[in-house]
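Re: your question from the hallway

Yes, I did run it. Sequences:
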Amino acid sequence: MTQQIVIDPITRIEGHGKITIHLDDEGRVSDAQFHVTQFRGFEKFCEGRPFYEMPSLTERICGICPISHSVASAKACDAILGVRVPETGAKLRRLLTYGQYIQSHALSFFHLSAPDLVLGMDSDPAKRNILGVLEADPTLALDGIKLRKIGQEIIAGFTGKRIHPAWVVPGGVNEPLAEDHRKTMLASLPEALEITLRTLRWFKASLENHREEIRTFANFPTMFMGLVNDEGNLEHVNGKLRFIDYKGNIVADGVEAADYKTYIGESVEPWSFLKSPYYKPLGYPDGIYRVGPAARLNVCNGCGTPLADQEWAEFRSLERGPVMSSFHNHYARLIEIVYAIEKAQELLNDPNITSPHVRAFAQPNYSEGVGVVEAPRGTLFHHYKVDEEGLMTWANFIVATGNNNLAMNRGVLQVAQRFINGNSIPEGALNRIEAVIRAFDPCLSCSTHAIKNPSFPLLLLAADGTVLDKVRI
Amino acid sequence: MKKPLRVDERSLRADVNPVRLLTFKIDDRDVSARADETILTVARQNGIKIPTLCHMEGLSEHGACRLCIVEVKGMSRLMPSCVTLPRQDMEVLTKSDRVLDYRRKILELIFSERNHVCSVCVTNGHCDLQALAVEMGMTHVRYDYIYPTHPIDATHPRFSVDHNRCVLCLRCVRVCDEIEGAHTWDVMNRGISSKVITDLNQPWGSSETCTGCGKCVQVCPTGALSEKGKSVAEMVKRRQFLPYLQMMRHRE
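Structure:
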């Protein structure tokens, strides 16, 4: 008799989702689905609003990476205005983005995933949380909290708000950088760097303990996508899209944001509110690709900052081609924090950074605009169409987590096949299935929308659909 | 719109037509007033706070929002203090439980009628309606929201009107008529379906009477009228011109 396992809710992720695992007659895992059970509707209710409201409207999609949404949105609006953002405005958007990278990656690594990494996948679930980490390794836990604070304060220093600062606007940013905030930020960065390098050393030394997870956490060949700059280096704010295949060959490069539809298709599955984007030339579902920290390090030629470049080289030497295991997103996240800190230091020492020219003004001159950025969780697209008065007539978002949907599904299947036998769920297996999702650091509230049921279970279902086992965490 | 009598105008020639002085009580305090001054004016002269929304110094009184209601001893109805004149020995209560309760209800009803979403509004942080909600400690709205569907009119080259945020205070109608003299703005329909319109309910951009002065935008208490291109919280209203223009209008 075939059966089905449901994990609901998945814990320690942003947003709400559940997992269903199908077992065949012999009790072996035959299929697995990762459902996003929320629905939001931003694309629809933005219609009719003035386009210049979009950065602040879409910022509300997420409390973790509001900056990425506002920058992607503002870039789509820049395209509608047809302006070139003043140099300092562009630099400040970048600086703000790095602040967000520090806080968001710190949240994912320390607060959400460190319990698995420090205490172990099979440890007591009652203690497997940030407080458990605080007991087991106080330095690491405090480091995480401090690092996230530094990132948050970079954001807060611009507007006094840690989330939803509404500071990025079409044409640039709302206000120039104040000299005292520049100094405060600069002063906080050495400690951030020290924390990140210390954590990196610890993490690299602990990789040995996670050999089985590295082998099974979405470790399969797929394409990767990410932004790169003109030199082909790591890029988060501007740049163009690059796609590589599983061997690391570049299959598309220099793709402008406006051409994304030529390369990316969006498929819909009836069991999830999250769409499944795919690489169009390969079709669905063969066009599976991954985005996010590891994907970015896979597609780029290097980082372009000294410390991050060293770490990048070491990271890329893990495998001959692109690094395939999504477990290594944790690793990549730490390297990106190093990069964000180095870049932030560079920008803050730029004499031009406090210039008052931060915003370009114009009427809506074009009826369509696409903005793309690298959000902490991956590539984020905002695509708008407006009427003659600048009122939104249509919007399309492809949110970071969505790009990884196919890979997350396949990753869940891979882990389930390795760790589940028979029709009950061992606790360690349950946690590993969730942990593979956590490695992607999905932001489900971002990629879709909640209407009800803010929790997320794991079900074991029979072939006829009857629930054999249900775990609610 | 029927043009109400302007309180300020009537009082201008007090030298040749002296008004009667009278005394009455506000919140148990003895106050004196000229017979042509409203309860609201006298209260404010005496440092007694009464919340208002449609009232605006320099414009005629309209009594639309009812937030300035007060209790008058011996009268069963609550009275809008902005359009009620005091009587000798009247006893006015501005903070009785009944008054505060009704003010809260009125404020909540205003919020429930349209779509007021502060977090993404251009006047977030500079909004009279928002300030009132904070001041009156409005933590929630006990009535069901109506969620009407109102399109935005962005046809004017510089300004836009978002009826979702309109509270029908009619400051725009009054400032356009009384100060600018254009009377571009007016109201159509009745009751809950009332809506401010430009000219004969045509797109603002096609209005022949609008001078594009922007006074309506500046006096609007919420984000309903705003300058185009402003992002969230960027629309700060400038109202300094109003008393000055009002004074100059009356200079013979």
